[in-house]
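User: Sequence in, structure out. Go.
Assistant: Echoing your sequence, followed by the structure tokens.
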Amino acid sequence: MNWDYTPYAAVLHITAIIAAGVAYMLARRKSTPGTFALILLMCAVSEWAFTSGMEAASVGMARKIIWSKLEYLGAVSAPTLFMVFTLEYNQIKRFLTRGYLLSYSIVPLVAFVMALTNEWHALIWNSFTPGPSGTNTFIYGHGAGYYILIAYDYAVVLIGVWVMLRTWLQARQPDRRQSGFILLSSILPILTGLFYTLGLNFFPGLDLTPISFLVTGLILALGVIQFRLFALTPVARHLLIENMNDGILVLDAKDRIADINPMAESILAVSAKSVLGQPISEVLQAWGPLLKSIQETGELQAEVLSRENPPRYHDLQVRSLFDTNKEYIGRLFAFRDVTRYRQAENQLSHQNEELRIIERIDLAVTAGLDMQQTIKTLHEQCSHVVPIDLFYVALYDEERSLVTVPLHYERGQYQTGTLRDINERPGTIGKVIRTRQTIYLQDNIPPVTGPLNLNLEVERPAKSYLGIPLMVRTKVVGVMSIQNYRPNAYREDQIRMLERISVHAAIAIENARLYAEVQRLAIIDELTGIYNYRGLMELGAREVERARRFNHPLSILFFDIDDFRNFNNTYSHTAGNIALQGLVQHSRSILRSVDVFARFGGDEFVALLPETDLAGAEVIAHRLTGEIAAIPIKTSYGNLNVTVSVGVALLSTLTPDLAALIDRANQAEHEAKKGQKGIVAVSA
């Protein structure tokens, strides 16, 4: 008996028939991007399922192996074709050139050849074990080549799934429905293939992956017949800006409406749900002459009267859209409101006044580099435009997701603000940063619009809130918040003017931030990351003044590496730099965050210890010498140990200033070096 036609074989052949039927239906719509690749995919699935069915029905190991080899033609092609389909469907044509397509075929061809020649190398199958009695199956033991192929298959499938998932997340209906069908149809084959690879099948020896494509075929067939899957060509969603003030409408290559933003819906008095997928000639029948001109020339610039109430004039720009290969993919309609320009004669004097105000603000705001003074000046100038009861600028650090308020104005006085992580508590500030758009709350604003976590007693809550993003090119550097105790305190023209001010304010804020960063870097040692000599003198002078004013103890440690010159000569200056960095790292773990730790020069270091008497400083010095000597420093020459000698001194009447205090500790350090290495000497 040469055949044993089991139910499993029958199901596989049914799967092959359905896949072939889906391919036939798609062939009737092959002009749509992605359809041709999907036709090939369904053909591969059909071949895969058919040969799998023949393998399941064959009797004898030799026959089964022959059909298993032929099965690989469809099995190794399907994953790659799925990825190619997703790329073609989404019109990512830079990865669909002839060179790329040839490269995609290499692995499937090599895998098929390996299956045909398995007897020579056993890289695909290395053993064949009869399955459970009565199942007419063999359990195939797999070689290294099989697992490499499986890894490749899942890689290309996951690429395709990621492309479709991204499209689904960005799309609007009906494109979202199309992408959703494709994503749904890909889940079951992926899972069943994974179960087979991991040996989790309920029926040992049976590969259920081809059967799972039966469900895939049914889902796609339902989409094609019932929901007009592939009836619309997807147009990249990034061409539209959902919330922009201009109306945007996009047509596909067949002049059907592929997308429309809310502003265009308002201008044309239509809803996206009712017009998406419809020919533009049916939606805008009254535009007959204009549409004819667009079809003839492909371009148009005209002024149209909208269907809004009251009607408004819009400048209409129509442009043809082309992909990276210069192939036509549709048209873009952009509606820009020009009603104000029609009334320009009545508004000319007002606009001139606005220009003068902006010029004054530009001059005043960009004059200084101090952050707090810049914010105060900005507040003062904005007060000439609108009434302000509360004002602050929230600075945004994108890398750390932190928002800080250097200065906050309320009830006639300035106060220092605080900070928060906007990932944890985004609030209204986070919304302004995320959307990069102005937010105007006219009444009953929520508490989160306040200046972060300032513990201020709220006597009178603000009613009107205006949050404007501060942008430098494409980067958000902060948010300017203007508030008033009265509801509906600001008009649209005032908001627009403040937005124009924010452009100049953002540059001033960024300049002040960069200046502060330069000032900070000027007092930081580049090699070790601690304060340099300049930083020590600036911050140390403050600590000395504070200690004398409040009569608090202030101690100092002066230390350097013993025989550091010999260390450099023996190993190298590079090893010496590593030793300095390691010493700083160990010292930081011993010193407190309030201590002023600085590199005095070369291998000499100074640590100012506020609120620490001489005995306490001596304890810290001994801990420094002990731990630094005990902990090796990793270098290219191996683990090396260094020792330090420390001089300790206390601020007193004998040290009238910081320089004298440092000199006294330095002298004690010289005394320490007269003895053994790693000695602590205390200045009496």
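User: And one key feature?
Assistant: The longest strand covers residues 313-322.
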